[in-house]
Write a structure and sequence with these properties.
The protein is mainly alpha-helical. Helix content is about 70%, strand content about 0%. The protein has one domain. InterPro entries: DUF2165_transmembrane (IPR018681).
Length: about 170
């Protein structure tokens, strides 16, 4: 077993942040799988646009088909699960590197891909598509923009830290 390296603050921070995001998105996916109906209702209402201002100029965007709504929800859960798995792999690679392993590149690559998947889901998916295309911002009861923004910040901060280069890499 390789000897432990001296304290490396950036790789440690990257490990902790990647692991935190991995745990979070894994719990989100697990919750959506084991309590399917709760967030299914959220997705259905957002896609149906039934709690928005019902502006006729926007309502043509609504997806009222339960089948299409459920397909969208299952795809979201699959994306969350894949994101969690990629981030768990990234966390494991960071942890191995902290214990004396080699190769920051693999840890950084897996973490970057997973964090970008997180940003795509919550930034592009929930904020842009849900918030703007389906006018989720208009709903008082089914508005997930604040939660999506928190997730974008968490993923974005982790992405920045993961891609910083320490003194040992310069």
């Amino acid at each position: 077993m390789p000897a432990a390296r001296p304290f490396q603050p950036l790789p440690l921070a990257a490990t902790v942040l990647t692991g935190t995001v991995a745990l979070y998105i894994a719990l989100v996916a697990f919750g959506n799988i084991t309590d399917f109906g709760t967030n299914q209702a959220f997705v259905q209402h957002v896609l149906a646009m039934d709690t928005t201002f019902k502006d006729p100029d926007l309502m043509w965007r609504a997806i009222e088909s339960p089948t299409l709504q459920n397909i969208a929800y299952v795809l979201i859960i699959a994306w969350e699960t894949a994101t969690a798995l990629v981030l768990i792999a990234g966390t494991a690679l960071w942890a191995r590197q902290l214990r004396g392993g080699t190769g920051l590149a693999g840890a950084r690559r897996w973490s970057t891909v997973g964090l970008l998947m997180m940003l795509l889901l919550f930034g592009a998916g929930f904020m842009a598509i849900g918030g703007e295309w389906f006018a989720m911002w208009q709903s008082k009861s089914w508005n997930g923009l604040d939660a999506a923004a928190r997730n974008v910040v968490l993923g974005g901060v982790a992405l920045v830290v993961v891609n910083l280069r320490g003194a040992e890499e310069r």
